[in-house]
Input
Amino acid sequence: MGTLEERIPSAKIFELMGCLGETVKTHDEIRPALGGAFNSGKRAAINVGANPDACHTL
Output
């Protein structure tokens, strides 16, 4: 099953609009991406990839 992330580079679209655009794929990448967003001085969009097959039960 394909995802929109594979077809639409949303981070690049935001960069074309003058924002910081970043894509993260692991939880270890989230904190640095947030730090970069806060320190960039720009509006930012962080695309966080998710595994649709992952399941968490509460």
